[in-house]
Structures are given as C-alpha cells and as structure tokens.
Amino acid sequence: MVGRRPTPERPLASGRGGDAAVRIAGFGADLGADLAADLAGLYGPSSEAWRLNREAALLLGAGPLAVLLQVAHPLIAEGVAAHSTFRADPWARLDGTLRSYLRIVYGSGQAARSEIRRLNRLHRGIAGPVADPVAAQRFGPSYTARDPELSLWVHATLVWATLITVERWLAAVPRDARARFYAETLVVGRGFGVPEAMLPADLDAFEVYMAAMLSPTGPVHPSARSRELAAAILHPPLAPVVERGPLARRLGVAAPAAARVLRHAPRSALTPLLIPAVGLLPAGLRSELGLPWGPIERALDLWLATAWRGWRPVLPPSIRWFPQALEAYRRVGMEP
Questions:
Q1: Residues 6+ apart with CB under 8 A from 142
Q2: What is the overall mean pLDDT for the chain?
Q3: Residue 299 has pLDDT above 90, yes or no
Q4: pTM score, two decimals?
Q5: 99 burial type by CB count under 10 A (0-12 exposed, 13-18 middle, 19+ buried)
Q6: Average pLDDT over every residue of 148-156
Q7: Range of lowest pLDDT (52-66, 69-83, 256-270, 298-312)
Q8: Which of 199, 237, 249, 335 lies 20 to 30 Å (CA to CA) from residue 266?
Q9: Average pLDDT over residues 173-193
Q10: How do the domains of the chain map onto residue ranges?
C-alpha cells in the first residue's frame, strides 16, 4: 500500500503514530504499532519537521547559517577551534552537522536516538580553557560543550535556521505551522540534555529567547576567534569535497586527481554559493562577524533565490529532496 504523494506546499493532514501504522502495514502482516512508530522515526510523514527539512537547496542557507550562528557564540567558537580541524577543513563540520541533523529528523526511531547518544558522548570530551581574553572576561576561564546553555543555543540555531531559510527560499510558513514545527523539536532539545525548565516552552517563548541571545546585552557577540571561523566557513578549501563523502564515491578512482587539481583552486571559489547564508544572518551579527553585505552580495543573493524559485516547480522530488528524506518516505510506504 502506498500513501498519497506528499508535496512541499501541502503538509499531510493525518496523525503520526496510528497513521504510520496504517501505511506501513501494507508491507507485511501485522506490523505492530511500536515497529510502525520506530520506522516513522521521531516525527513521521505528517510532521512539519519532515515537510520543512526535505529540500536539498536549503543546504545553501540553513546549514552554513546554523554553523555561523553557533560559532558566533564565543564559547562555542573556543570549543570548535580547539577540538576540531575546522579552519583547515570546515567541510567536515558542515557535512557532519548536516548528516547528523538529517539522521535525527528522517532516521528511524532507533537511528535518531542512537545519533543523539553519539553526539552526547562526543561532546563529553569537549572542554578546556577559554583562550580569548575578552571571552574569558565575559564568560569565565573555561567552557564545556555539555553546558546546557550552549546545548540549547546549538539546538536553537538549527530550529531558527530551518525556519528562516524555508521562508526565504520556499514560501512563508504560517504561524500555526511554525508553532507545530517548534513543538516537534522539543524532544531533541531534551535529548541533548537541555533541562525542561530551560527549554522555551512554545514558539512565542522561543522567539523571546532568540531575541535575548542576539540582543546588545546578550551572549552571542562574536570574538576574534568567531570571526576567524566565519571566514573559514565562507572561504573553504575545495579538495576535501572530493576526498571523501558522496562526491568522492561518485568520482571513484578519479577522486585523487580531482583533489590534486582543487588544492590549487582559490578558497574563495565557492563563496558566492554561500552568500544566501550570510544574507539570512541578523544584520547586526553579520556586521560583528565582519562579513560584507553590499550591492554585489545582495544582487547575487536575489539571483540565487529567484533562480531556485523558478526551477523548483519543474524539478521532481527525486532531484530536489535530500536522499535521507526520500528514503524516509519510502520506508513508511509513501512514494515521493
């Protein structure tokens, strides 16, 4: 049995748990409700999370935007700089953030919970002294990635980046849909160890939280290290793109030769494609990060968004959607 085709413009109206059981039952005899719910994952096909995250073009905005917001917090910048090869290879974090996020959103229940546990284990070892003197004066001499306030900020950047990018690149998200999407994300925030009392309870509270974090007196004001990392995000080396991951697998034996050529390419070669993420940043934060936003950047941003909106209606989901989203719909018996 195959469910009706979902479209980005029309969220599926049916409920998650029982609805998933009905659809998946077409695959075989008497799949139990627990198994059906596990196949549907943390959210399921009727969720706003599945609807809003599936367009691969959002990678140009939401992925880099979330990481820029994260490293704009001086303590997160400290941890990223000290515990990763981010400056030499920002692709690793961008790719890891995207894959992890999509596994949580579109994976089975078991896969999503396993990914959350993996991230929590990884972050337990990320701690150390604050090297930036200004940041040390503001926040204290040390940091830990398991600080619930930092976990909440990372979680919030993913929520906020998704909503703002969808509205810029796809269509306006009605207030009730935004509220449903935010409510769906609370389970992940709790999974990352953010106490219930600290999590904004609803969309209104979330917007108040974001405004406070980004306000002149809030904690998210970039340090010198934040600006260094932002520059690395927007001027990435090209060779790592073909040295691992799906593109490397597609190139096969040609990947090493391609990597050798790309090592000589300027680090600014892909910067124009990352302009949408810069445009989605709050203007004050963009200025603090030292990112230009003049007529050329505005024109390029408008051209990319307009071109995507023009092409999108003629492209099938098999091209537009992330592979993880396509697999998830098929897993629950729905052909994209």
A1: 127, 128, 129, 130
A2: 82
A3: yes
A4: 0.82
A5: middle
A6: 95
A7: 256-270
A8: 249
A9: 95
A10: 56-322
Residue with tokens 């992925």: 63
The C-alpha atoms of residue 88 and residue 240 are separated, in whole angstroms, by 10
Residue 322 tokens, joined: 């992330």
Measured CA to CA, the distance from residue 47 to residue 235 in angstroms comes to 35
* More confident position, 215 or 240: 215
Q: What pLDDT is stored for residue 2 in this prediction?
A: 35
12 or 212, which is more confident?
A: 212
* Phi and psi, residue 111, nearest 5°: -65, -40
